[in-house]
Amino acid sequence: MKSHVRTLQIAFTYIGTIVGAGFATGQEILKFFTQYGQWAVLTILLSTILFIWLGTKMMIIARRIEAESYEDFNRHLFGEKVGSSISLFTMVILIGVNSIMLAGAGAIFQEHLGLHYQTGLLLTLLGSYFLLKRGISGILQMNSIVVPLMLTLSLIIIFNTFEIPNAGRFLFLDTDSSIFGAWISPLLYTAFNLAMAQAVLVPLARHTDKERALVRGGILGGIGIGFMLLAAHFAMSSQMPGILQFEIPMGSIAFRLGTLVQTVYLLLIFLEIFSTFVADIYGVGEQLKQHLRIAPSLITPLLMLICYLLSQFGFSSLLSVFYPIFGALSLIWAVKLLRTPWSSPPHNKKSSSIHGSGGNKIPNVSPEPVIRFTRK
């Protein structure tokens, strides 16, 4: 039973890390899949396979090399120098994304709860701080609540869409987009999200005792992500092309289902922002602990302070410049992960003496004495 619970926690955390606020609003699905019409179902299937395969592989390798942070993982993929540079750039992106998500949380408090914008920011930071004090267990428990809510909302939207006359359009939707764009899109989507998710999935794998739980969690998580992608595409295809005019496409669908579903949807957007914010802060904090010579308890408040300050000055314009660069880098990262062999499982202490750093086996030395005869 404990093993099954751990598997579900890993799967939920995987889903919750990938499925962020951009997913909940519908913009990501619309941009990467739905706009490609009849190709979308096949590309969602491709993306699902990649999430299952690469996500599981990343967690297993991270556990076998005993990576403490995503920087350790990137060093394993690319080597010391390049891996450290990639991790530094990833950290900048994560902090920038977190500052924007924090601003989004403040906007939700202001626009829908009638509270001051700064109050929303401070409450989000305060809740994140107390949750992060529990470490990885807090992230697991939070996603165990948020993800079932997301899956439930997806099911509600699917059942409602079945009643619409255009429900079957997701299979035959016309598109003017190129086939090349349709098939490169799931690769970019998967690579970008996995490169971001490594911040929490790598330390999660490190703190998981049994590899079997990672395999099962990775498979279930990938399937769950694919299901939610397909559910959102199914719902939005029935509203094409009119849904393109909405800033929050999924919101326009949820709002038609009544006040209760609308309230749950708004709560869900905030919880997804909150869960992604917490996970990214945790991941960046694990990386910084390896470099900063300050008390570990001060790193999380320091990161939150930086995100709070950036949320005041609008980091989005600068991030829009970095995003395409990070997208291309993520594709290279995913290809490298694809080509990297599965590392050998860690050996016990008795056999550790015949292994060098990084788990590379040192050639065995014969126990028999070597006798040399020399001529005087």
From TrEMBL:
<keyword id="KW-0472">Membrane</keyword>
<dbReference type="InterPro" id="IPR038728">
    <property type="entry name" value="YkvI-like"/>
</dbReference>
<feature type="transmembrane region" description="Helical">
    <location>
        <begin position="86"/>
        <end position="109"/>
    </location>
</feature>
<feature type="transmembrane region" description="Helical">
    <location>
        <begin position="264"/>
        <end position="282"/>
    </location>
</feature>
<dbReference type="InterPro" id="IPR004761">
    <property type="entry name" value="Spore_GerAB"/>
</dbReference>
<dbReference type="GO" id="GO:0016020">
    <property type="term" value="C:membrane"/>
</dbReference>
<feature type="transmembrane region" description="Helical">
    <location>
        <begin position="182"/>
        <end position="202"/>
    </location>
</feature>
<feature type="region of interest" description="Disordered">
    <location>
        <begin position="343"/>
        <end position="376"/>
    </location>
</feature>
<dbReference type="Pfam" id="PF03845">
    <property type="entry name" value="Spore_permease"/>
</dbReference>
<feature type="transmembrane region" description="Helical">
    <location>
        <begin position="115"/>
        <end position="132"/>
    </location>
</feature>
<feature type="transmembrane region" description="Helical">
    <location>
        <begin position="321"/>
        <end position="338"/>
    </location>
</feature>
<feature type="transmembrane region" description="Helical">
    <location>
        <begin position="36"/>
        <end position="54"/>
    </location>
</feature>
<feature type="transmembrane region" description="Helical">
    <location>
        <begin position="294"/>
        <end position="315"/>
    </location>
</feature>
<dbReference type="GO" id="GO:0009847">
    <property type="term" value="P:spore germination"/>
</dbReference>
<feature type="transmembrane region" description="Helical">
    <location>
        <begin position="144"/>
        <end position="162"/>
    </location>
</feature>
<keyword id="KW-0812">Transmembrane</keyword>
<keyword id="KW-1133">Transmembrane helix</keyword>
<feature type="transmembrane region" description="Helical">
    <location>
        <begin position="214"/>
        <end position="236"/>
    </location>
</feature>
<feature type="transmembrane region" description="Helical">
    <location>
        <begin position="12"/>
        <end position="30"/>
    </location>
</feature>
<protein>
    <submittedName>
        <fullName>GerAB/ArcD/ProY family transporter</fullName>
    </submittedName>
</protein>
